[in-house]
Design goal:
- Helix 11 packs across helix 12 and helix 13 runs antiparallel to helix 15.
- This protein is of the alpha+beta class.
- The radius of gyration is 28 Å and the shape is globular.
- The strands form ten sheets. The protein has a five-stranded mixed beta barrel. It has a five-stranded mixed beta barrel with strand order 8-9-10-12-11. A five-stranded mixed beta sheet has the order 13-20-19-16-15.
- The longest helix has about 40 residues, at about 580-620.
């Protein structure tokens, strides 16, 4: 146990009052060496608000002082929530007038006003200290006035404009997209002050919005020179001496199954029917940890990035291409170093025996999801002929997949099946088509195999007791389950107990609504009611998978936690136990890695979603004035969110529903007309007219078809020309989105 942990454990468990530093050092019985670093550690803990220094110079922990330290998640309305460091604690609501000039993402200390708020009631507080600012640089749009300028942040949750003195424009013009560095933080009624450090381009320039998203999420588009140089030192072929201590599996007909455009292939698989009737499943994962050693330039850069980011028009890899697409990628016909998990699986999907070991493989064939789907689902004769030698292997893969899925379903795993939207771009980066990618047996095969490998490795490492990184998913909050249950009652369903909901109860609901009109809506609300999965140095289980042990082992090319998992696994292969000193180092290191990796994962997911949303909005711009069918997938006091058949979502603002005054019925998930009683409820099918798109804000505005609303009181039905002013020559060039468009009735 290091000194930091020793101080925190004592203060959380034994200190019954705030202590002066001298008293704390005495009661901890610190040795001479520890005393020399005591003051430094104490300062660090105070700086991170893990302990609080009172006005009388004594130290205590925030939880016992009616305080809470955490990260501020601001809203675009001005209020915010402090997200606690401890995920078991509830968020704290901060009203607009209690924000203390804190900005979105800042680490803060909040004083609690209603510490013991009951179930269903939010805790409320006020920010009393800003521990660490999160936004030293902010991306936004520059506007120039005569004697000064200001930058409006692109991030809507940062509501304060940044004041720019006359001499700090750095060439920025009106409408420029810029990066501004904060030189003075906001105080009371004074705005933040800064200087323009980079001009990205002008608002409306081609590609500027994607670049803005990249910069706002602090994503790197290039690697530092030292990292590129380090990658050039990695050999692009394998030598014989690198095979020492590895099991040679190059004779096995190992295959990869991935999308046709994938270039970073982490995993390969092999299935064999054994004489005892069981299956041998081999999952072989690129041994990235062999090439990326701890604390090297490559490792430090990968740790900072946390993950590869798959944007709509490009990939920002975690590792340089020489590794991610080269020596680490399991390319067909090439010898590759791997970590392998061999699992013997019985007819009920139970792992009866397993081995985890270093290996060398040579992928026999690269298969695509489309090819496997064509063989197993479409019975494509040409594909069957092309892959004739692999047909039995593919059939065994399908059988094992179904066995493993049945096992997961029996234990209660929740299995959402949302189609993935892919926006296809032309060579100029313009959207030309929106495609729904639905999961088939081909994707399920790889998913089930990877899930089993992740569970097996997690349980193996848990049994060894070595510090490790787990993938955890905690039980949902009772308040959210109560709200979900209220929604289910509208469809004649219920959860039963909402205090301790099991994953099996949620799975049963999904089974009952499968194929029904309400399936998408209930599935979406259910998913939003669950907590986010994250990385953690402590094994807390995985609620959604109904798995007591889970980790991420299968994608070390594109996820840093997987790389760390491999590194620790490799240390257990030496035959000896991981040393006490190493365990101590890992115990101190892994919580921070898990926290940072979770944060980078969230940033990557947000950036990916924002770029897809941007291109969806750009795509729909050609259909302004046209009518579409869709379903209500969200109801709020200010309007209805409608999802079209092609997956595009937009808002029908309540102000456009001008045939009545509509009231929001929260528990019914509906807007109800005061006079007419007309009801628009979550899940209802509607017809809407596209009236406006805003690529910068990634918003789409609809109006309900006049045929649904009826004519305005005292008015007449609007013509198409009145609905939207747009030149006819533009309309004549519109293309039809597949399966969604109908001409509006004249």
């Amino acid at each position: 146990m290091n000194l930091r942990e020793k101080i925190l454990i004592f203060m959380h468990t034994e200190a019954y009052k705030p202590l002066a530093p001298e008293d704390l050092a005495e009661v901890l019985e610190l040795k001479a060496k520890e005393l020399t670093e005591f003051w430094r550690v104490l300062e660090e803990l105070e700086g991170s608000a893990e302990i609080i220094k009172t006005r009388f110079g004594k130290y205590g922990v925030p939880e016992r002082m009616n305080l809470m330290a955490g990260t501020l998640s601001a809203s675009d309305k001005g209020y915010g929530f402090v997200l606690p460091n401890n995920p078991e604690e509830r968020d704290v609501y901060i009203p607009v007038d209690s924000m203390m000039n804190a900005m979105h993402g800042d680490r803060v200390v909040a004083r609690l006003h209603n510490r013991k708020a009951g179930a269903g009631k939010a805790r409320e507080g006020e920010i009393i200290r800003i521990v660490r600012r999160a936004n030293s640089q902010i991306l936004g749009t520059f506007e120039n006035s005569r004697h000064f300028g200001f930058v409006t942040p692109d991030e809507s949750r940062i509501r304060q404009d940044i004041f720019i003195p006359k001499g700090e424009f750095n060439g920025a013009k009106n409408g420029s997209k810029v990066v501004v560095e904060i030189t003075k933080w906001p105080e009371k009624k004074r705005s933040a002050e800064g200087r323009v450090v980079e001009v990205l381009g002008h608002k409306g320039d081609p590609g500027i919005e994607i670049l803005s998203i990249i910069r706002r999420h602090n994503l790197s588009t290039t690697f530092p020179q030292e990292v590129e140089q380090a990658s050039l030192k990695v050999r692009d072929t394998i030598t014989e001496d690198e095979l020492v201590g590895r099991r040679d599996l190059r004779a096995l007909p190992v295959v990869t199954v991935d999308s046709e455009d994938a270039k970073d292939l982490d995993d390969a698989v092999y299935v064999e029917r054994l004489k005892n009737g069981r299956f041998l499943l081999g999952v072989h994962i690129a041994d990235v940890s062999y090439y990326v050693c701890e604390n090297t330039a490559l490792d430090n850069e990968a740790r900072e990035r946390g993950t590869s980011v798959y944007l709509v028009d490009r990939v920002l890899p975690m590792l340089p291409h020489r590794l991610s697409n080269g020596i680490c990628s399991l390319n067909a016909g090439e010898d590759r170093l791997t970590l392998s998990a061999h699992m013997e699986v019985d007819h009920r999907g139970n792992v009866m025996n397993y081995e985890i070991f270093p290996s060398v493989i040579r992928v026999n064939t690269r298969l695509s999801y489309n090819a496997v789907r064509g063989i197993l689902v479409d019975n494509d004769a040409a594909l069957k002929e092309k892959y004739q030698p692999l047909l039995d292997h593919i059939a065994d893969m399908e059988r094992l997949c179904r066995i493993l899925r049945d096992r997961r379903m029996r234990r209660g795993a929740i299995d959402f099946d949302f189609p993935e939207l892919k926006v296809k771009l032309n060579e100029r980066g313009q959207p030309v088509e929106i495609v729904k990618r639905v999961r088939s047996i081909a994707e399920s095969i790889i998913e089930e195999f990877m899930l089993l490998a992740n569970e097996t490795v997690a349980e193996h490492m848990h049994s060894l007791g070595v510090p490790f990184v787990f993938r955890v998913h905690e039980e949902p909050e009772t308040e959210k389950m109560v709200k979900l249950d209220n929604l289910l009652h509208n469809f004649g369903l219920n959860l039963g107990k909402t205090e301790e909901v099991s994953p099996k109860a949620l799975q049963k609901i999904l089974g009952r609504i499968a194929g029904q009109p309400e399936e998408r809506i209930i599935s979406t609300v259910m998913l939003r009611s669950l907590k986010q999965a994250r990385y953690e140095a402590e094994n807390l289980g995985h609620f959604g998978l109904a798995a007591p042990f889970y980790t991420h082992f299968t994608s070390p090319i594109r996820r840093y936690p997987d790389l760390v998992v491999h590194r620790i696994l490799r240390e257990t292969f030496t035959g000896g136990d991981v040393s006490a000193k190493r365990r101590q180092k890992l115990a101190a290191l892994l919580p921070e890695i898990a926290l940072h990796s979770s944060a980078r994962e969230r940033s990557a997911a947000e950036a990916e979603r924002e770029t897809v949303d941007l291109k969806k909005v750009e795509y729909m711009a050609q259909f302004i004035g046209d009518e579409f069918g869709g379903n209500i997938n969200g109801v709020t006091a200010f309007g209805l969110f409608v999802e079209l058949d092609n997956g595009v979502e937009g808002l029908v603002h309540v102000s456009s529903m001008d045939d009545d005054y509509y009231c929001y019925a929260e528990e019914q998930y509906a807007l109800i007309g005061e006079r007419s009683g007309k009801t628009y409820r979550l899940g209802d099918a509607v017809r809407v007219i596209l009236v406006k798109v805003n690529p910068e804000e990634r918003n789409i505005d609809f109006e309900l078809s006049r045929d649904m609303l009826g004519p305005k009181a005292g008015g007449k039905k609007r013509t198409r020309k009145e609905a939207v002013a747009e030149p006819e020559k533009t309309k004549s060039r519109r293309k039809k989105p597949p399966g969604t468009r109908q001409k509006r009735k004249k």
